[in-house]
Design goal:
alpha+beta; Ribosomal Protein S5, domain 2; Alpha-Beta Plaits; 2 domains; 7-stranded mixed sheet; 4-stranded antiparallel sheet; 10 helices; globular; EC 2.7.1.39
Length: about 325
């Protein structure tokens, strides 16, 4: 590995780059996430109790990476791996570097299903790097705000990443970075606050076997929307905060959307049909992120007959806790 030079205003750096000793080991346990929750496009998210684990050990030289579980057969095992890139970015921001790394990824979060697998990879890599820096010197540790910023820079929006960092439900936003000498800032500034989810709320994910492309489904969205639809989503997004924290009886209304789900429906026929099935049964269901997973929020046990029907159609039905944020050990 090469000693980095931190460059962005969000970097947390020591006075000079310090070298990590060999033999330091950290494991990051990072939750999956679901974004949007209906009306909160690129804003609302929730951390889900399905976890990837990333173990990083400093070595004398080189890079060794192993991937187990989800994505083991279709992700690059080298410097271009998203986790490795995030580890290097985290070390850079903490003002440390390593002569070599041994990285083991144990993945349980399905890839390209709308459960935030890429955001989890980034958050896990950054958290592992942060854990290594803290073992060298606790003063080098990155704050949660910095982890939200760094992980969101990878994603380009903060909803999934901030949920995996902070846990619970999140409200996230971005604004343009400060300009220097009239030139645009290198990156936007990303922020998020966590919400404590009402204890009665249960989360169920219906996960299809096929994958979807975020770039493709995002490309289906129009550049402009009618004023009435924008106003509708503003009201439902505000209501969602109330429903998630204090009034789960309002979840049906709070998960209505006019900005992205209908527009994506042609690319997600199974997802769209199951959202309709669940909502007809009185269960607040939405597209999880860009799909194809269906996210259901309810206060009642998931109906046995709907579970059987979903599984018969090839959907994996996961009853998940609302998770805490990333943890290292």
């Amino acid at each position: 590995m090469v000693a980095p030079t931190p460059t962005t205003p969000q970097d947390h750096t020591a006075a000079m780059t310090q070298t990590l000793p060999t033999g330091l080991t950290v494991t990051a346990r990072v939750p999956a996430s679901s974004a949007n929750l209906g009306p909160g496009f690129d804003t609302l998210g929730i951390a889900l109790g399905l976890y990837d684990e990333i173990t990083v050990t400093t070595t004398g030289s080189g890079l060794k990476i192993r991937v187990e579980g989800e994505g083991a057969d279709d992700v690059p095992w080298g410097p271009s791996h998203l986790v490795v890139r995030a580890i290097e970015r985290g070390l850079e921001s903490a003002g440390v570097w390593a002569e070599g790394l041994d990285v083991v990824c144990r993945n349980a979060i399905p890839h390209s299903r709308g459960l935030g697998s890429s955001a989890s990879a980034v958050v896990g890599g950054l958290a592992a790097a942060n854990g290594l820096a803290i073992k060298l010197d606790p003063e080098l540790g990155l704050s949660l705000d910095q982890l939200v910023q760094l992980s969101s820079e990878f994603e380009g929006h903060p909803d999934n990443a901030s949920a995996s960092v902070l846990g619970g439900a999140v409200v996230s936003w971005s604004c343009a970075g400060e300009q220097t000498d009239g030139a645009p800032a290198a990156t936007d500034i990303y922020s998020a606050v966590a919400l404590k989810v009402h204890p009665a709320i249960r989360v169920v994910a219906l996960v299809p076997g096929e994958r979807s492309s975020t770039a493709h489904t995002r490309g289906l969205l129009p550049e402009t929307v009618p004023h009435r639809d924008a106003a509708f989503n503003v009201s439902r997004g505000a209501l969602a905060v109330v429903a998630l924290t204090e009034r789960p009886d309002l979840l049906m209304a709070a998960t209505e959307d006019r900005l992205h789900q209908t527009q994506r429906a042609p690319a997600l026929p199974l997802t769209t049909r199951w959202i309709a099935v669940l909502r007809k049964a009185g269960i607040a269901a939405t597209v999880s992120g860009a799909g194809p997973t269906v996210l259901a929020l309810t206060t009642e046990p998931f109906p046995v007959d709907l579970r059987a029907q979903a599984e018969a159609e090839g959907l994996q039905v996961l009853e998940l806790d609302v998770a805490d944020g990333v943890r290292t050990s």
